[in-house]
Amino acid sequence: MKQLTAKQRERLQLADGSEVVIRPLERADRAGIKAAIGRLSDESRYFRFATAKPRLSERELDHLVDVDHHRHEALVAIDAATGEGVAVVRYVQLNGESSAAEVAATVIDDWQGKGLGGAMLGRLAQRAREEGHCALRASTLAENRRSIAMLRRAGFKSRSRGGILREYELALG
Fold first, then answer.
1. What does the pLDDT profile of the chain (173 residues) look like in tens digits?
2. Which one of 1, 22, 36, 43 is CB 3.0 to 4.6 Å from 85, fit for a cystine?
């Protein structure tokens, strides 16, 4: 798969017939990210941030949209019918480990369970390979069964067994 650039977009049809456009996240997506996070249920926000988070600070929003498409990559999925953002996946290179990156995925509640998160993780893994990363790591709350199932379907293996936070890794070799 070739690298997506800011001008490249990929149209993806999901099994239920709904369509999204996947493209790299841009700074101009800030308002859309803020709105999408506001549309998440309390539970989905809790699972994504591992804490109660009614809204994000301006600094947190800055971090989410400050991507360089190398050390910090993010892909966004836009509902082809409405133009609204419905999912974001991202990786951030780990400090002190240039070959590994931490990954996170967020899918709006109405779009969960359709395979969108897994499809986007696959595209993100390809981008990480292109940038020279050898592994993706993810942390999720042990009670977030949907996220764990998505990670396992995408090939992530467990790195931890107990506790409230579970860690997973995908080798990109």
1. 344 454 578 999 999 999 999 999 999 999 999 998 889 999 998 898 888 777 888 999 999 999 999 999 999 999 999 999 999 999 999 998 889 999 999 999 999 999 999 999 999 999 999 999 999 999 999 999 999 999 999 999 999 877 899 999 999 97
2. 36
Structure tokens at 143: 């009670």
Structural domains in the chain (count): 1
> For residue 140, which of 167, 117, 120, 105 has the smallest C-alpha distance?
167
CATH number for the domain that contains residue 95: 3.40.630.30
Burial string for 89-118 (b: 16+ CB within 10 Å, else e) reads bbbebeeeeeebbbbbbbbbeebbebbbbb
Residue 69 structural domain:
10-132
Is there a domain that residue 163 lies in? no
